[in-house]
Amino acid sequence: MTLLEFAQRFVGEVAERPGIADHPFIVWCHESCRLMDTSDEVPWCSSFVNRLCWVYSLSRSHSAKARSWLTIGVAIPIAQATPGWCVVIMKRGAGVQPGPEDLNASGHVTLFAGMDGFDFFLGTGGNQRNNVTTERYPISQVLGVRRLRLDHLT
Questions:
Q1: C-alpha dihedral (115, 64, 44, 147), degrees to nearest 10
Q2: Span 87-136, pLDDT tens digits
Q3: Domains and CATH numbers, the chain
């Protein structure tokens, strides 16, 4: 089972809970980034990917910052991305934003799930509409694509 296939098992199963009852899986994901005693209201896209990578014993960023993934794995162009083991790091929000060199700026990380035409791609990840979902994103928002190293799985 690829990392993407594993992530897709959580679609429709994991979502933020309103009020003070936090989703225990999201809190567990945060713990993989050393965020203790936090809630499911804290952005959790990177925590989700970190936890999945922990399960697979893959390299991970250990950070809740989405742009931290720009330093993990092997950089590839999105045209070479394949569903399974690639993460996509994007800008977050509209307007002018820092480039990929600013690892502390806001962003979003998701697993590459395929292309949708020439200008969009599909990403499966956490904290997408406060859930684990597969969403359509514009390629113009992409800061980088990283293929996770699989040396230990071969």
A1: 20
A2: 999 998 777 888 888 888 999 999 999 999 999 999 999 999 999 999 99
A3: 3-153 (3.90.1720)
Q: Strand, coil or helix: what is 55? A: helix
Asked whether the predicted pLDDT for residue 153 surpasses 60, the reply is: no
User: Are the C-beta atoms of residues 103 and 71 closer than 8 Å to each other?
Assistant: yes
Q: How many CB atoms lie within 10 A of CB 61?
A: 25
Residue recorded with tokens 């990917």: 49
The mean predicted confidence, pLDDT, of the chain is 92
Return the structure tokens found at 30.
């945060």
Task: List alpha helices for 1-154, DSSP H.
Answer: 3-8, 24-31, 45-55
What gap in Å lies between CA 109 and CA 88, rounded to an integer?
A: 6
Report which of 67, 61, 59, 49 is spatially closest to residue 6, judged by C-alpha positions: 49
